[in-house]
Amino acid sequence: MTTTHEARMLEAETEIAASPEQVWELVSDLPRMASWSPQVVRTIVRGGEVREGAKAININRSGWKVWPTQSKVTVFEPAKRISFRVADNWLHWTYELTPTAAGTHVRLTRTAPDGLSPISAKLQGVMMGGLDKFDREVQAGMETTLARIKAELES
Known about the structure:
Elements: E1 10-16, H1 20-27, E2 40-45, E3 55-62, E4 65-77, E5 81-86, E6 92-100, E7 103-111, H2 118-127, H3 131-154
């Protein structure tokens, strides 16, 4: 029997003075995510096209630690929502875009509807200083990612 581990939902939000279509161009460009996310080193989309069902190899980092993950786009609704599931840790990442009078409200979430994979929980505990510490780092990274996307679109 495999034991799953709880993982907190994390979220970050911002308002961007740009249309949902403009925001979508950036948040759906997974190969460019390393430009904004402090944890992503590189994303390679198999076949090159980001769409529902697309699979990607991701290289991530935290300080000197570098590790690969594999993900699959599970939702692809242009100018509205993109979501992908990381196979290695079972976590889901979602960007939701909502038009507003000033532009676009962007909500980035990390959820764990299936829990956190046992191997990921163990590695986060041993290599990342514990689940809570790593969650704080991920939360800060999510906020940085949205701030960088906002800055790029509003410059």
